[in-house]
Specification:
Length: about 325
């Protein structure tokens, strides 16, 4: 079961995908600043369990096309890419696994195309209903008090130039800051005015770390050295547009079978998901089958606790196979 690479033309972009194994498809969706490679420890484990593990570079990342128009990075557009991927492999449905932006993406895909979603497994970013106001209004209010990357990334130019000039340093520092080895919300101690992201991120210790090797960071860095970060930053610049495009789903509940796992030191759970994110998710995900807290892990939980995450993924996939949608879980 060798790892292979190929390209799929979705109608919108030429998308690079990494694949391993045969069987029912399991599609892994990454976030920022990642590529397909953020899942490279999961693909062989899922393939060995009897599935076709697929990890695309989502649009704007890695070897996938980087559209010039910032408005081409909506969740609606990328959901179209994922459905085109299913059509390409001749699959009516797949299980989708998501982290970070990839988590928001698969939650929305489950609302937009439930008939194509066999189940979802989400890491660290719980489902939340559509807010009553555009997200940027909340970020601007927060940025009046402290630095907030969500607000900083909205203006094209400054972040693109800052991060693109020092890609390996940025990746090391942001991965470290998001991990259980640091408290990411300490970045809020800095003022927003006149501050860049590298000004607020901690210095990263020398690699290797207990959960990331220098060779792994090298692979990730090479892609961003070639592409820069604008494609990924454009996802942030479409969050208001995503909000506008989901008006019809404001009161909708996710009906696909869902499994959720999170690091006990994940900053999104602590500072970006509301006061009681698990209760909110339970109220809006009709078939939420498991919620698992993973100790000693932050945002990149699949790297920080690889064996535990892989065991959970295979367990959840087996449970879903035994109890598909419509049957008692």
């Amino acid at each position: 079961m060798e790892l292979t690479h190929r390209f799929v033309t979705t109608g919108g972009v030429r998308m690079h995908v990494a694949e391993q194994g045969t069987g029912q498809p399991v599609v892994f969706c990454h976030g920022f600043p990642h590529t397909w490679y953020i899942w490279h420890r999961q693909l062989p484990a899922i393939a060995a369990a009897g599935y076709r593990a697929i990890a695309p570079d989502l649009r704007g990342y890695g070897q996938t096309d980087v559209p010039a128009d910032p408005e081409e990075y909506t969740n609606r557009a990328v959901c179209g890419d994922l459905l085109a991927l299913l059509d390409d492999i001749g699959a009516e449905q797949a299980v989708f696994v998501g982290l970070d932006f990839g988590a928001a993406l698969v939650w929305e895909l489950a609302l937009r195309a439930p008939e194509r979603v066999r189940g979802i497994i989400v890491l660290n970013n719980p489902f939340a209903p559509r807010p009553p106001r555009a997200p940027s209004q909340l970020w601007a209010k927060a940025a009046a008090r402290h630095f907030l990357h969500l607000h900083y990334f909205q203006t094209p130019g400054p972040a693109d130039e800052e991060l693109g000039a020092r890609p390996r340093e940025f990746l090391a520092r942001v991965y470290y800051a998001l991990s259980a080895d640091y408290h990411y919300l300490d970045t809020w101690r800095f003022p927003a005015e006149g501050t860049g992201y590298l000004d607020v991120l901690p210095e990263a210790p020398a690699l290797p770390w207990r959960w990331l090797g220098a060779d792994e960071l090298d692979v990730l860095t090479r892609d961003f050295e070639r592409t820069g970060f604008t494609g990924g930053l454009n996802w942030y610049r479409n969050l208001d547009r995503n909000w506008e495009l989901t008006a019809d789903y404001a009161d909708a509940k996710v009906t696909a079978p869902a499994y959720f796992l999170y690091g006990d030191r994940d900053p999104d759970m602590e500072g970006f998901s509301g006061r009681d994110p698990l209760a909110t998710m339970r109220g809006h995900v009709a078939d939420l089958r498991a919620v698992t807290e993973i100790g000693g892990a932050g945002h990149l939980v699949q790297l920080e606790r690889t064996e535990q995450v892989n065991a959970l993924l295979t367990t959840h996939l087996a449970h879903l196979a035994a109890h598909p949608a419509g049957l008692p879980a």
